[in-house]
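User: Here's a chain of 164 residues. Predict its fold as tokens.
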Amino acid sequence: MPQKYTKTIMDTTFLPSDQPTMHRQEFFRLVGISIGAIVLKRCMIGCSDQVNGTPPPTPSQKVDFTLKLDDRANDNLKIKGGYVISNGVIVAQTKDGQYVAVSANCTHQNTQLVYKSVENQFYCPLHLSRFATNGDVIAGPAVVPLTQYIVEPNLTAGTIRIHN
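Assistant: Prediction complete.
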């Protein structure tokens, strides 16, 4: 004897609630504010981070040090486009083979810079400020230029002197 199947449809009813409902626009507005607060907090925390813990030199502070190219820590300076950070100064060899040195931290909110050899610029990875090899601001939010230092390479001795 064949079995008989029955189909039951359940009716869902919502009970009235004494809790007020939130309109869709209000919900998205609150979500947007929350995301904005999270991003702003990350921005505030990240801008003050320093990788090496060395405070950047102030423009009036005396800077005078020598990097030895045979030191393993300075190997990047042997190649075009390479850079190192030492004593709060970023020293780079441009794609043209010239050595340049500027203050190592962004003037916007003190984030440590990197050198992008393809663009021949110093770059802030946090807020995307860009600086020319002489320290001038190319793109903000930074508005104050970097401090430029005098670079005296002595390739015969295998040293690079940085001073102001």
